[in-house]
Write a structure and sequence with these properties.
- The protein is α/β, with parallel strands linked by helices.
- The chain contains 18 helices and twelve strands.
- The strands form three sheets. Strands 8-9-10-6-11-12 form a six-stranded mixed beta sheet, with helices on both faces. Strands 3-7-4-5 form a four-stranded mixed beta sheet, covered by helices on one side. The chain has a two-stranded antiparallel ribbon with strand order 1-2.
- α2 crosses α6.
- The protein starts with a helix and ends with a helix.
Amino acid sequence: MDVLKQYYSLKDKHQRSFDELNKRFHSVSLLRFVLVLAILICLYFLVFKTFTYLLFTLFIALVLGFLLVLSYHSKIVFKRQFTKELIKINQEEIDFLEKGEVPFKNGIEYLKPKHIYAFDLDIFGHKSLFQHLNRTATYIGEKTLAGLLTKKAANEDILNNQNAIKELNEKLSWKQNLFAFAKLSKDEKNKYELLHSWLKSNNVALPKWVIIASYVLPFLFIGFGLAYFISKENVFFNLFYQTFLLNVLVAFSQIKKMTKELSFTTKIEEITKAYSLILEEIENENFESVKLIALKAKLNLNNQKASSAIKELANIFSKLASVQNVFGSILLNGFFQYHIHIYRKLQTWKKENNTSVNNWLKVLGEFEALNSLSNFSYNNPEYAFPEINTDKNLAFNNLGHPLLSKKERVDNDISFKNNRFVILTGSNMSGKSTFLRSLGVNMVLACCGSVVCASSAKVQPMQLLVSMRLMDSLEENESYFFAEVKKLKLIMDLLEKDTSFVLLDEILRGTNSDDKRQGTIEVIKQMISKKAIGIIATHDLEVCNTTDEFPEILSNKCFEVEIVDNDLHFDFKLRKGVCKNKSASFLMKKMKVI
């Protein structure tokens, strides 16, 4: 089915569900109002008019009915919010595919200018690869996706990711459900870190006498109450209310410890409820690929589901928060020392689960990251999963840049099988830099298990080393030239460790022509001696003569420009050989610069 049609179909389906939920919402809201009115009328007649058992029974029935309606109303409210998110998800995909709108987070906070390729290839930031791919809504999800795009996975992991993505491609509705639950969480870095801060904080144990009193005093309270009810002796009544006061005093003697936990309560309660829904969605789905089965298995520890454990934590925090209600707190603690038992339950939960929570959330993050890559694959059915090899075989057919629209993009074939290093020439605006970025971005995608913007590809995953975009550093009193030399030194050092894929664009710009030419030639020789695979782009045609020395390793390729009807014409097609035509002088003359 056509991708856009599928999104339109799902959007219409969810819109119909939302309209139906809206009708039920308004009907239930009206019923809730009628029940409140009826309860108040019954209460008026019971208190100010004649009390009858029939009226009292009706009053109880109305109260119970109101509680049931209130519960149903809450469920409808949540379903409306959930369905609204599903409508929004499909509308965003429609706008993304039809208009090129990218309302997704761009991950700029993960950009490290000194990363070996992220800054050069626009992996993060406005209209970046991350923003193009990102369909995460939790902090751990976006962090996991950012990690996938900034480091090479092992070959086995890449193949497992490919199979997981293929399976998720068939689960569009499930993926959108997971995304909708994540969006409803309103998760942020500070909430995620608050949860981990609480998990790392030490439990403050209760004194033994408090624990003993929390069992003995409530038992005595009930005993004295029963004794008074049976005997009507005042001594038991006195002991009854004195025990009540003792219960309150014991519970309130530990209020500081509870207050410390309450500083975490509200935000953790909200986020844990959301996490439990996302994890439950994963637990309830059946998977066939090795990666997804293994991830799901991590959510079941000692026959306890992660979603249940996380949901229990949210409930415990909710109950502990009731200590802030003074009247309710006095009653609950006077009867049973309620908050002492809840506090102990919270401590026990943390002790039993604090090491597991991080693993559970890592699973959540991996599913969100894989969902993002699957969404990219689903939206681009013509893209290919690269064949992974260990033979240093790198080849792309109809390679293009995934961030360019199909109408704007010009695809090219490239192979490094016969000549593993290419000297690329071409005039300004001919497409050299775009081609280098196309290669780099697709290598990043291939090395995390994603599809690539090509009709077919063969890739040996390897370290990607790029020098295309540098800047002066005022903070480090560093010139552009020195920054570039430092980057080249880093690349050379990394090449000592393993065969890598290198992309260099017009290096040594900050020096004179002869120095630049000689420096570029020496860099090429050093790189091929270190078994590097890749491309260097240059405007200096004399550099291309280096291929005569190393015909089995080096090859020349180019992008040409033609002057047609007194205008520059670029076809952006990669050709063999050295470029022959120049555009700079022609363009400056045409624009009357010279």
